[in-house]
Amino acid sequence: MSHGGNIRQLREQAGEGVEVLDFSASINPLGFPVWLRAEISRNLGETIHYPDIDSKEFIETAAKVYNVSESEIIPANGTTELIFAIPRIFPLKKAIIPEPSYSDYRNACEKEDIKIKTLKLSGKNYFNLDTKLLDQELTKPSLVFLAHPNNPTGTLLDLRKIESVIESHPKSIFVIDEAYLSFSPDDEELSFIKYIHKFNNLIVLRSLTKFYALPGLRLGLAFSCKKLSQKIHDYLPPWSVNTLSQKVGTRAIQDINYREHTIELLTKCKEQLITELKGINKLKVYPTAANFVLCQLKSSISSSELFKLLIKSGIAIRDCSNFKHLDNTYFRVAIKSIAENKLLISALSSTLIPNYTKSIALKKKTPSLMLLGCSSNAGKSIIVSALCRILLQEGIKVAPYKSQNMALNSFVTKSGLEMGRAQAVQAQASKLEADIRMNPILLKPNTDTGSQVIVMGKPIGNMRVKEYIKYKDTAFKFAKDAYDSLAAEYDAIILEGAGSPGEINLKKHDIVNTRMAEYAKSPSVLVGDIDKGGIYASFIGMYETFEEWERKQVKGFLVNRFRGDATLLNDAHRYVKDFTGRDVLGVVPYIKDLGLPEEDSVSFSDNFIPHGTKDADPLDIALIALPHISNFTDFDALANEPDINIRIVKTRQDLGTPDCILLPGSKNVIKDLKILKDSGLAKRIIELSAERIVVGVCGGFQILGKSLSDPYNIEGGGSISGLNLLKINTTLAKEKTLIRTDAEHIISGKKVHGYEIHHGETILLNQDSLFKRTDGGIIGAGNTHIWGTYLHGVFDADGFRRYFINTIHKSLGRKHSDKIRYSYDLEPAFDRLAQTVRKSINMDEIYKLMGL
Asked: Among 225, 402, 476, 544, which residue's beta carbon has the most beta carbons within 10 A?
């Protein structure tokens, strides 16, 4: 290949199905600016008109950025257009080109039959140009092409010496190509652009496509005195620079943050790559001032043979044997990201060092898949459970993982650590004991702007948003360590994102969506809820917010909760494929009465509706929707009973006269209790308690008491009187109780089980204990009419749940039976879910994506 970066040819040589990592073209490792797609999209409509023939806006901006006059700038369709134009515009009889160097200097001169004199650059002095030889060759006016830094050697010119040569030969034309100088931290200081005011025989070229990673757009600049610029302008064809290139170029050269980020990244990546290349004793590595490195082989293998071996594994290097004065021992590699550089080093080492793979253990990637969502409550958690159960059925040892979960539904592991309830359910789908590594970071909101932060199962304190953002780097380390530990033990991991990965305000400090997928090297599938509408716009809109590295992660889309004939969606799927290049991998139907716990309070507000088939006249149960409700899944088992109808109550007017009132847990009990009082709900609950059964769980238990105080500011501080329906007082302690519990309901003798998550320390004031725990601790108090408990999951036990329901029937004089009418067993639900999802999505493609 005469040039690097011919991606079509590289892909053909790599073979079908091999993804090429291109080190043959030296492009900014940062990738193009994040604003590029928006800039192109915004200006796409302008392509209906001819481009501005004068590139006025672009030239005005470039003049300010480079501190030159507008008449000294010529934009072009890449610097290659300028390189081929200059020998025609200035038809001197002789050209001087130090070589090895960029081959198109020679090609452009040969096309105009200009005699070429080569100044041989030697590796013995690191390919530095001898300016004395250059000066001696300039016996008559010549066209001189000099690269600064040179390609492929990476050497810089000596500014002062070249300045002297230019000054000594005013009838020669000097073309200084600074295509890669922008990658230098000392760009401005080292540039020849400042000399165009001094010399009438100097042309400086700048390629914008390399630094801004836009080689496919094509954009370059020439800087010279007004006279030379006018000659170049008059020669170039009209509309040389298209509309989109003009718009992008105008914005790019003003993007100081992008430049600073590039220099910072390149400095780290260059140091790392050169150090590791020098560690391969089969290579000689030359110093470089550019974003590429020239290497020389010290083995029997040639650069052409090395290229052929590496391309089959998806690594493309630049074979430099076709550069004049370089032989088949030289090759060039671009400097890329640290992770990509490591892949290059591994490939080179495997090829050049005998027994490399035997002596060095390469870390094997655990097969994984990341489920991202167009929004919260898109159904990611349920799909993760489904995939975990499907893989389990295939004999694969699989585990779920979510680095950070924001939810008020939590669970306690056997070791007394707190994690998200959703990941506990996913573990159950995998037939695993819940493991804190599956959800290392849990955020439990207790105000509109703050949360309790739980790391590796233990609370570390309350943080407001800005505090937590500062802490996120530390949190991410815990998350990554947890993932690595989990991935080392299992055959596959199904990861879950959080909320939406397209939230622009959150992307910089993301630790749960695309950044986590990047760390896990996990392909991603974007899940959308079609039941809410706008799913295909969400797919495309979300994809549009992604940077290039994120787009590469996304391998497809998944439609969730569809009601109807899926073939009606084919046109929409084709549209998404045309727009994104990604397939819709499946359509999961709306599954009624699934019987699995929902994940968070969004689900509670929208979807907590009667489950299953109901009796003609079910009991009317009012569940009070506390603003900071937590662990509302405590009532899932009740909701599935045929003689129970649970309805959500938010106001006094909604309450009516139910058969029973349930007060759930709360992450801010004092605040929620104040709201209950202010709304009149508290008063109405007290009134109804004379005739109706009232039950509180956790925070709801505390609300039923005489008083509640928060002396350590656990949930905002303060104290408040309760509803005074139970003779108990509660104080929030510094330490959180986290324990799995088995107990006995004293009145009925029924066994119950579950877990405790609370700061509250409750004492009984002339009030009977209602549950007997093995260690004698208080987990509940009251009688059959009004009672409360700290035990989350108290209604999961079939026997006690039926006993409780029957006490409501008895209190109303209704007929009842002791027969168990519903068994709260999630296994059939998991299997039903897996069967539905297996039929609905392309599992072969999922296995392929995961590498299974």
From this structure: 402
Amino acid symbol at 626: L
pLDDT at 360: 43
How many degrees, rounded to 5, is the angle at CA 56 between CA 53 and CA 59?
A: 115
Q: Check if the beta carbon of residue 438 is closer than 8 Å to that of residue 401.
A: yes
Alpha-carbon distance 289 to 218, whole Å? 23
Q: Establish how many alpha carbons lie within 13 A of residue 25's alpha carbon, considering only the half-sphere containing its beta carbon.
A: 21
Task: Give pLDDT tens digits for 404-451.
Answer: 999 888 899 989 999 999 999 999 999 999 999 999 999 998 877 789
DSSP label of 840: H
Q: Is 362 helix (H, G, I), strand (E, B) or coil?
A: coil
- Cα–Cα dist 744/752, whole Å: 6
Q: What is d(CA 44, CA 328) in angstroms, rounded to the nearest whole number?
A: 45
Token pair of 470, please? 């500062």
- Extended beta strands in 483-609, E state: 492-496, 524-529, 554-562, 583-589
Three-state SS string over 141-172 comes to CCEEEEECCCCCCCCCCCHHHHHHHHHHCCCC
Distance CA 290, CA 727 (A): 77
Listed in sequence order, the residues at least 6 apart from 304 whose beta carbon sits closer than 8 Å to its beta carbon are 319, 321, 328
Which residues are designated catalytic? 698, 792
220: part of which helix (H) or strand (E)?
A: strand 220-224
Give the DSSP letter string of 747-814. TT--EEEEEEEEEEEEEESS--B-EEETT----EEE-SSEEEES-BTTT-SHHHHHHHHHHHHHHTT-
The reported pTM is 0.81
List pLDDT tens digits, range 617-636. Answer: 999 999 999 998 888 889 98
CB contact at 8 A, 796 and 595: no
Q: Looking at residue 611, what is its pLDDT?
A: 65
The amino acid sitting at 556 is G
In the chain, helix, strand, coil percent, each to 5?
40, 25, 35
Q: What is the pLDDT of residue 3?
A: 78
Strands (E), 258-328: 283-285, 292-297, 315-316, 318-319
CA 254 vs CA 61, 65, 251: distances in Å: 8, 7, 5
- Are 413 and 433 in contact by the 8 Å Cβ rule? The answer is yes
